[in-house]
Design a protein that fits this description.
Elements (H helix, E strand, L loop, with lengths): L4 E2 L20 H14 L4 E3 L9 E4 L12 H8 L3 E12 L3 E7 L2 E10 L2 E7 L5 E7 H14 L10 H15 L9 E2 L8
Parallel strand pairs: 1-9
Antiparallel strand pairs: 2-3, 3-4, 4-7, 5-6, 7-8
Keywords: Hydrolase, Iron, Metal-binding, Protein biosynthesis
Function: Removes the formyl group from the N-terminal Met of newly synthesized proteins. Requires at least a dipeptide for an efficient rate of reaction. N-terminal L-methionine is a prerequisite for activity but the enzyme has broad specificity at other positions.
Family: Belongs to the polypeptide deformylase family.
Length: 196
């Protein structure tokens, strides 16, 4: 089932999400619904707060980035097969020299800005079968994970912009929160009369 994606301005996007346990109600159904929602919106990642739930789950499938011809073959191959669910994740380490990449977000449609992040991360998490993993990622894979991880920490990519950039996009953000935007997927707007 496709869920509405929560738009910029909804308080759930600014809350630090809580861990869950194996008995979380209808977890498998939620994960399936989140995959459907993400693919329907042509996203490469989706976090539970983006569907209105302040819990520590996100998923990624950065396969569309594998088409980027600037990447080496090994990174392209890695991105193709990286469809993953992260439950109760903790980034243990971030390292390397920060680099910029133009990021966007399903909760903030039509806004893209350069965000600086470190290129290498180590993360601990449970998968959908409650198996624990500690893994290291680099480059675009790390970036997609960092972006989604920020969501469960109550951080949006726009929070990482300079004050000048924030001022320049302020009216766009206000319009998004009021639903004054055309999107191809189902959204819930905090300051609109009704969800579309």
């Amino acid at each position: 089932m496709i869920l509405p994606i929560v738009a910029y301005g909804d308080p759930v996007l600014k809350k630090k999400a809580k861990d869950i346990d194996k008995d979380y109600p209808k977890l498998e159904e939620l994960i399936n619904n989140m995959w459907d929602t993400m693919y329907n919106a042509y996203g490469v990642g989706l976090a539970a707060p983006q569907v209105g739930l302040p819990i520590r789950i996100f998923m990624i499938d950065p396969a569309p980035f594998a088409e980027d011809e600037e990447l080496d073959e090994a990174e392209q191959e890695a991105l193709k097969d990286m469809r993953k669910v992260f439950i109760n994740p903790q980034i243990i380490e971030e390292s390397g020299e920060e680099w910029a990449f133009s990021e966007g977000c399903l909760s903030i449609p039509e806004v893209r800005e350069d965000v600086f992040r470190q290129p290498d991360i180590t993360i601990e998490y449970y998968d959908e079968n409650w198996e624990k993993h500690t893994e290291t990622y680099s480059g675009l894979a790390a970036r997609v994970i960092q972006h989604e991880y920020d969501h469960i920490e109550g951080i949006l990519f726009t929070d990482k912009l300079s004050s000048l950039k924030k001022r320049l996009i302020k009216s766009k953000l206000m319009n998004i929160s009021k639903g004054k935007i055309n999107v191809e997927y189902k959204m819930r707007f905090p300051n609109a009369k009704k969800a579309r």
